[in-house]
Amino acid sequence: MNTEEKLIKCFKSIEDKIPFNPRIAVVLGSGLGDYASQMKIQKTIRYADIDGFPLSTVEGHKGQFVFGYMDRIPVVMMQGRVHYYEGYDMSDVVLPVRLLKLMGCEFLILTNAAGGINPDFRSGDLMMITDHIASFVPNCLRGKNIDMLGERFPDMSQVYDVQLCEIIRESAEKTEIQIKEGTYIQLSGPSYETPGEVKMCAALGADAVGMSTACEAVAANHMKMRICAISFISNPAAGICSKKLSHEDVQSAARDAQDRFTKLVTQIITEIGLRYCS
Ligand code: HPA
Predict the structure, then answer these.
(1) Atom of ligand 1 at shortest distance to CA of 116?
(2) What is the distance between the alpha carbons of residues 57 and 63, in angstroms, rounded to a whole number?
(3) What is the pLDDT, as a whole number, of residue 248?
(4) What's the pLDDT at 59?
(5) Nearest by Cα to 150 from 220, 229, 228
(6) Which residues are paired to 43 by β-bridges?
(7) Confidence (pLDDT) at 53
(8) Is the separation of the CB atoms in 178 and 266 below 8 Å?
(9) pTM here?
(10) pLDDT class for 34, splitting at 50, 70, 90?
C-alpha cells in the first residue's frame, strides 16, 4: 500500500467516529499530554484502534486523539506522536498530521520538549519556534507527491505563520508568561546529542534541539495549514551543562512547566478562535 492509500484507509476508518470537524489541532509533546483535560472532552480515539496507524512506543505518550471544545471552538489534540527514531518511515511519522488536515483542521499548534542550545535559555523556558532546520532527517515529502495534499516543491520560506506567531507574543504578554524565540533543529535521535553535535547545531544557528516537530511542520506546510509551535526547554543540551540527560528528567521538567504551558496555550487557542473561528 502506498502512502496515499494508507492515509485514505486510516481516514476512512475514523471518519464515522469523529464527533465534529475540528478547526484547531494541538500536538502535545513529551510530558505535556495532560493538557488535553483542559477541554470539554467529547470523544477519544486511541491510535491502536485505527487501522494501519503507526503506534507510538514512547513512555509518557498516551497515544490517542482527543476531541473536545475550548471556548466552543472544536479542537482535536494528539496525546502522543510518532517519532522517526521509533523506526517508522517519515511518511508514517507525518501520517497523523495529514489526518488532522483531512479531519478539517486549518490551524496546527505543535509542542515538544527540547534541549536548549542558546546560552540565554534556561531549563523551564518556553520557546516559540520561528524557523527550523530539518535537513538532518529524511524529508517527509520524499516519494511520489500526494497531489490532493499539496504541490511537489512547496515553499518553506515561512513555515511558522506570521500572524499566529504574533498571537503567541500577545498571548504571552497577556498571561505574563515569558517566551523566548528561536530556531529548532530536528535530529533523528533516539540518543541525545554529544557536546560536539550540540556545538555543530549552535554553529548552524539552532537555538533548541529535539527529535520531532520539524518534519510535522513540513508536512503541514505542504498542506497549507497555518502552523505555530512552542518548545518547552526541558534541559540544557549536552555540553551546555555537565548534567547527564535522561527521558525521566525531561518528563518531570515538563510537568513543572505545566501551569505556564496550560495558561499560554489556552490563551493562544482563545485568540485563534476569536479571530478566525467565529
Ligand atoms: N536533545 C534532543 N531532544 C530532546 C532534548 C535534548 O537535549 N531534551 C528534550 N528532548
Answers:
(1) 7
(2) 9
(3) 78
(4) 61
(5) 220
(6) 67
(7) 87
(8) no
(9) 0.95
(10) confident
In contact, 264 and 172? CB cutoff 8 Å: yes
* Cβ(198) – ligand 1 distance below 6 Å: no
Buried-state track 153-169, b at ≥16 Cβ within 10 A, e below 16: ebeeeebbbeebbebbe
CA of 183 to the centre of ligand 1 (A): 14
Indicate if ligand 1 lies below 6 Å from the C-beta of 50: no
How far is Cα 28 from Cα 194, in angstroms, rounded to an integer?
26
Q: Are 88 and 60 in contact (CB under 8 A)?
A: no
What residue's CA is closest to ligand 1, atom 3? 210
CB atoms within 10 A of CB 258: 14
Q: How confident is the model at residue 148 (pLDDT cuts 50, 70, 90)?
A: very high
What tens digit of pLDDT does each residue of 256-269 get?
Answer: 788 899 999 999 99
Q: How far apart are CA 161 and CA 24, in angstroms?
A: 14
For residue 252, pLDDT over 80 is answered with no
